[in-house]
Design goal:
With 133 residues, the protein is mainly alpha-helical. Helices cover 50% and strands 6% of the residues. The protein is built from 6 helices and 2 strands. A hairpin with a 4-residue loop joins strand 1 and strand 2.
């Protein structure tokens, strides 16, 4: 009985670990640049976290207008406002008012990629947002 209990505990521990590894989006295809962005390893694993460049830029630049009570008329946004696919469409098509009126022009192409990577990783359909950030 003792071995069975230990076996069950090991199985559930392995299952939970496997699910948490799977929860992080591994990669993202960027239609604008035609590149595959690896999000769960290397520099982007760090930069797509809330404290990385993508998260910091979103909070400092995007949230300066897209806060709850802004006077720019920008809609309130948070990471979970769109799905991963939705965020990719926003950045690939650049039809958002921010892109059209030149606000995005103050960001480099790399910064826009990092913000898109960050939002993709923490979107409404990503299980990664349940990970302790």
């Amino acid at each position: 009985m003792k071995h069975l209990t230990l076996g069950v505990i090991c199985f559930f521990t392995l299952a939970v670990t496997a699910l948490s590894v799977y929860a992080t989006p591994a990669k993202r295809f960027d239609a604008k640049t035609g590149t595959c962005r690896i999000l769960n390893d290397g520099p982007l694993e760090w930069e797509t976290r809330p404290w990385g460049e993508g998260g910091r830029t979103f909070k400092q630049v995007c949230k300066s207008c897209h806060s709850r009570e802004n006077n720019q008329g920008a809609s309130f946004l948070w990471e979970e406002s769109k799905t991963s696919r939705g965020w990719n469409n926003v950045f690939a098509r650049q039809r958002a008012r921010c892109a059209r009126d030149g606000v995005w022009a103050k960001l480099s192409d790399d910064q826009l990629l990092m913000v898109n990577d960050y939002l993709y990783r923490w979107s409404s359909d990503s299980l990664d947002r349940t990970d302790s950030a």
